[in-house]
Amino acid sequence: MVNIGLLGDISAGKTSILRLFVKYMKVGDIEKVEGGKKCTVVKTDFSGEATVPGGDKEDRLNQKETKTIHPNRVVFREDSSGKAHTIFAPGGDRARSVIRMGIITISRIATQIIAVFSCDRPLEKQFEFFRDVRFFPDNIFVCINKIDLIEKDAEKKVEEAKTKIEDFFKQRKISIKEYFITCAESVKGFEDVQTYNDHTAEMILKITINS
Q1: If we measure between CA atoms, which residue out of 48, 58, 59, 38 comes closest to residue 18?
Q2: What whole-number distance in Å separates Cα of residue 78 and Cα of residue 31?
Q3: Which pTM was predicted?
Q4: Which domains does the chain have, with CATH numbers?
Q5: What pLDDT digit, counting tens, does each position of 41-51 carry?
Q6: What would the DSSP string read from start to end of 46-104?
């Protein structure tokens, strides 16, 4: 059994990653991605989500912006082996004590950590979140999410981001096992949306089942 902790700043897309992975399992797309295997959703818990009044998503596609108060959780099972795995996604607002406690708890119980970064804001601000996380394993995975929000020279900017992220964690004596570049939303008009949606599911499968 693998416990994954998705850690990252506010609105890095952690909940979107969970929801997309659940969708892939429910509609059968999980078997179509690279390394895909049939998996079944055992339990989901998104009760920690609270709607943000007047958030950025307000009145756009009738969506609401949310903030994670208590860690969201997805439990799924490999159909072939019967092994169950859990993915946890605590909120990123570490200024709130209840959220900070969730971050501390998940960072300690997770057997694998995925540090989630968003392409829509400076990395320096997102590094502040990780500076406050005291407990980290020696080796982690990194997910660079929201690739759709890079308008030009995406490949170059991703490589620049990797270098900065590598340097940041190296200073903390933490090694990065692998990077995953994802888009965890169904973004209209983004030509490569299917590819990067698939990368999201492939990331979870590789860390839990195919490692």
Answers
A1: 48
A2: 11
A3: 0.89
A4: 3-208 (3.40.50.300)
A5: 999 999 877 65
A6: -TTEEE-TT-TTTTSTT---EEESS-EEEEEEETTT--EEEEEE--S-TTSHHHHHHHH
